């Protein structure tokens, strides 16, 4: 696949690119300005099968592999980074764990309605008191009769205001530390659940981000996902997959930035020639291209390993780390190439710069990715 | 119910690509350049698929003439909902000189072979802008034609076509079998969905050569030279509306 993608994947990439060019790129600036959830586009993407790429056809999904998913998220993010993360969170963070750990009944109830774009899901792990330190989760879940009762607050939840369900991580046995965390399926809205204020973010503003506040929130006993105490494992495996999604989003943002900069370099003249002729600009564009291409290959490799059912934790972390750093680097340099024009909203460069920044933070900060990678590398030498 | 619709799809240089003339002026650069389905052919495929979804036709067959690469274009048609494809292999010099005359002969032969009662084509291709294939195909088959269609309705064994003409819209009724060519406003083509892209993989594409259809590929047209359009000259700035009007009068424009 280093030389050429299979025909199926090329076609999928093309259809997503066409959709992004025609339906997302023209409205991305407006969506960002007005913080508007692209409901119509999400429904259209659902109809295309993109909201549930890996979900089998029997459950309403497209039945394709993770490489296809990565390509889809990258192409869509190239048009609109907010749409990219909405698609990624639904696929990797919500449908992912239910598909992997859910019972057949749970899959029917919590997967099929979320494949069409009519409903989206979200994933609630982080809390105001802990992001990177996921094991310190202080949201509690206790059994009471035939219910689970959840109490606590979850922070930074993408899709919060637009979601119809959440996978929530809560502690069922504090004495067992991270082995005492369990995963639950929470319908939204729900009595006992309220949402915090919509966060006013630097970027990805068309996706909603808020706290989930659980106050004696009761859910049926059957809403436990997997087994008691499995929550941490579920979360970590979910994030491994999610990292491929975010890496793909970052690639889309980076590519859009490079497209913008290279096109501008051909057209803008200084000192009597297009700035594309100047070495300073050429060196920037070369560095940008290398950063993107290398991160893309790492991302594809992680996806291919996952599709081959091989271990992919290290590669997924490498993909997310390199792609997110590529996104911030490339979008930064794109503004530099555009000069003053890069600083105003007339050009999309400033939006890519703002959208890129979060990719180094969510679904595992760059620092956490480095710890994950180092951990894997050191294991190889033990 | 109409049995079979034949849809012609042409692989052309993508509309967004900046066209470059070859240094030897024999044509335009096509190597390594992005190609896609002719936009009017996309509209034709969409219309055929919609007819099938309305159960007005039974089968949609996508046809393309050209080298190996046109299979991508046929597969795109399959991913949009066509049932099967036919690839008529044309390559080398024959492909260089392939034009509406040869394609219409091929389509006419296929229409007879496949017993198609409806042929839908794009009104023209965006590379050569010939706007001839539909008309020639109808003439070769002695079928009625509804060109520049912005609306197509099957009414029993007749087809009502609303045509976009200079004066406005013209509505005609044709007896099947017919040739229809699609104009821009006929429909908005769908995006290929992921499940349909997967299904397209399993659909059949038959291969054949023009000789198998008894078609003579000789061209009556020889391209002598291809040149870029002249460089656009700088305009003249005027200070006021009166200035503009007088300058336009001077130039004989008003």
Automatic annotation (TrEMBL), chain A:
Location of the Acyl-CoA oxidase/dehydrogenase middle domain: 122-217
PANTHER family: ACYL-COA DEHYDROGENASE (PTHR43884), ISOVALERYL-COA DEHYDROGENASE, MITOCHONDRIAL-RELATED (PTHR43884:SF12)
GO CC terms, sorted: mitochondrion
Boundaries of every Acyl-CoA dehydrogenase/oxidase C-terminal domain copy: 229-377
Domain of life the protein comes from: Eukaryota
Main function: Short-chain specific acyl-CoA dehydrogenase is one of the acyl-CoA dehydrogenases that catalyze the first step of mitochondrial fatty acid beta-oxidation, an aerobic process breaking down fatty acids into acetyl-CoA and allowing the production of energy from fats.
Protein name (record): Short-chain specific acyl-CoA dehydrogenase, mitochondrial
Gene3D superfamilies, per database record: Acyl-CoA dehydrogenase/oxidase, N-terminal domain, Butyryl-CoA Dehydrogenase, subunit A, domain 2, Butyryl-CoA Dehydrogenase, subunit A, domain 3
Positions of the Acyl-CoA dehydrogenase/oxidase N-terminal domain: 7-118
TrEMBL record, chain B:
Keyword Protein transport: no
Subcellular location: Mitochondrion matrix
CC per GO annotation: electron transfer flavoprotein complex; mitochondrial matrix
GO molecular function annotations of the record: electron transfer activity
Protein name as it appears in the record: Electron transfer flavoprotein subunit beta
Pfam families for the chain: ETF
Family membership: Belongs to the ETF beta-subunit/FixA family.
SUPFAM superfamilies on file: Adenine nucleotide alpha hydrolases-like
Span of domain Electron transfer flavoprotein alpha/beta-subunit N-terminal: 25-217
Keywords recorded for this protein, A-Z: Electron transport, Mitochondrion, Transport
């Amino acid at each position: 696949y280093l030389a050429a993608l299979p025909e199926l994947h090329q076609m999928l990439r093309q259809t997503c690119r066409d959709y992004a060019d025609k339906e997302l790129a023209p409205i991305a600036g407006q969506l960002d300005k007005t913080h508007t959830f692209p409901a119509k586009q999400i429904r259209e993407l659902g109809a295309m099968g993109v909201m549930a790429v890996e979900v089998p056809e029997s459950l309403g999904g497209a039945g394709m592999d993770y490489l296809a998913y990565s390509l889809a998220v990258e192409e869509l993010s190239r048009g609109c980074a907010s749409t990219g993360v909405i698609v990624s969170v639904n696929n990797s963070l919500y449908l992912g764990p239910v598909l992997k750990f859910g019972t057949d009944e749970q899959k029917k109830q919590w997967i099929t309605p979320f494949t069409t774009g009519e409903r989206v899901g979200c994933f609630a792990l982080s809390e105001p008191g802990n992001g990177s330190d996921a094991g310190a989760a202080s949201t509690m879940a206790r059994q009471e009769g035939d219910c689970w009762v959840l109490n606590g607050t979850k922070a930074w939840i993408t899709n919060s205001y637009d979601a119809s369900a959440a996978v929530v991580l809560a502690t069922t046995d504090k004495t067992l530390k991270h082995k005492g965390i369990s995963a639950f399926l929470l319908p939204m809205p729900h009595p006992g659940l309220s949402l915090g204020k919509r966060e006013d973010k630097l970027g990805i503003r068309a996706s909603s981000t808020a706290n989930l506040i659980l106050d004696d929130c009761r859910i049926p006993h059957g809403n436990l996902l997997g087994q008691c105490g499995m929550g941490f494992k579920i979360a970590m495996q979910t994030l491994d997959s999610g990292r491929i999604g975010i890496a793909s989003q970052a690639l889309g943002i980076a590519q859009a930035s490079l497209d913008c900069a290279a096109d501008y370099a051909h057209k803008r003249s200084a000192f009597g020639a297009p700035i594309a002729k100047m070495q300073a600009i050429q060196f920037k564009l070369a560095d940008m291209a290398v950063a993107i291409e290398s991160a893309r290959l790492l991302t594809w490799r992680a996806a291919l390993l996952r599709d081959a059912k091989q271990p992919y934790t290290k590669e997924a972390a490498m993909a997310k780390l390199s792609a997110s750093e590529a996104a911030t680097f490339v979008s930064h340099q794109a503004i530099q190439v555009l000069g003053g024009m890069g600083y105003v909203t007339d050009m999309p460069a400033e939006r890519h710069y703002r959208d890129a920044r979060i990719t180094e933070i969510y679904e595992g900060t760059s620092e956490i990715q480095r710890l994950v990678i180092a951990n894997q590398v050191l294991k190889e030498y033990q | 119910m109409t049995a079979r619709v034949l849809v012609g799809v042409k692989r052309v240089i993508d509309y967004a690509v900046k066209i470059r003339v070859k240094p030897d002026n024999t044509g335009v650069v096509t190597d390594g350049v992005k190609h896609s389905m002719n936009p009017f052919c996309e509209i034709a495929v969409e219309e055929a698929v919609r007819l099938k979804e309305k159960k007005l036709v039974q089968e949609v067959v996508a046809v393309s003439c050209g080298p190996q690469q046109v299979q991508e274009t046929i597969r795109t048609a399959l991913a949009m909902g066509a049932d099967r494809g036919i690839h008529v292999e044309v390559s080398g010099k024959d492909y260089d000189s392939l034009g509406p005359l040869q394609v219409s002969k091929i389509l006419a032969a296929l229409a007879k072979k496949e017993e198609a009662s409806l042929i839908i084509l794009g009104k023209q291709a965006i590379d050569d802008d010939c706007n001839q294939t539909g008309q020639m195909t109808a003439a070769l088959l002695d079928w009625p034609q509804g060109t520049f269609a912005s609306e197509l309705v099957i009414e029993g064994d007749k087809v009502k076509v609303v045509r976009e003409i200079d004066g406005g819209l013209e509505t005609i009724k044709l007896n099947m079998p017919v040739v229809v060519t699609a104009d821009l406003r006929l429909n908005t083509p769908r995006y290929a969905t992921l499940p349909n892209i997967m299904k397209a993989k399993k659909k059949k594409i038959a291969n054949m050569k023009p000789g198998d259809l008894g078609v003579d590929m000789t061209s009556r047209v020889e391209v002598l030279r291809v040149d870029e359009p002249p460089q656009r000259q700088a305009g003249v700035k005027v200070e006021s509306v009166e200035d503009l009007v007088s300058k336009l009068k001077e130039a004989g424009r008003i």
